[in-house]
Predict the structure of CHAP domain-containing protein.
Amino acid sequence: MSNIIRVSLAVVMMLVGAVCADATTPLRETLDHKNISADFASINTWKPELPLIHPISNGDADEAPEYIADMLSFAGQYKGLRYRRGGKTPKGFDCSGFTSYVFRQFGMKLNASSSSQYTQGEAVEDMDLLPGDLVFFSGRAVSKTRVGHVGLVTDVNPDGTFKFIHSSNSQGVTVSKSTEPYYSRRYIGARRVR
């Protein structure tokens, strides 16, 4: 191996060590092939962390922020998980426990109940729905005056109808359509929490 290649390799390795270094745990590693030594702190497997706060973008208001796709993918991992009254963990969720758990993983705090979540964020008109918006329904009683159920929008059609993921007491975490008679009769409104 030529001296230029050896020197280049040593410089690259020192730069990688400097970028990945954690100054609290120094380690001297010697490359025994050609007596090239470099100081490294510790090079571990590194995974970027999602930021905990996701401010509303000043960009196009007709598009969901980039992290929403990650949020919906995360929520989708729980499809099929059983319903658990008062549940707020992956051992089982009720509807508001599910939405608050998902949002919490992305640095946002939602209130504990579906009716109190309905007071958070900004109201959204049906034609302005975006993936990641919260949608609210009356509970089992077909009363349009009291929120009793919440879900997270996954897909929106041009006509304002949508699909949403939620924890249903009959099916657990599932995806439903706003056009299903059970939900279309009970739909109250939507909120955007960012």
Summary: Residues 161 and 179 are 7 Å apart (CA to CA). The longest strand covers residues 147-156. The chain has five helices and ten strands.
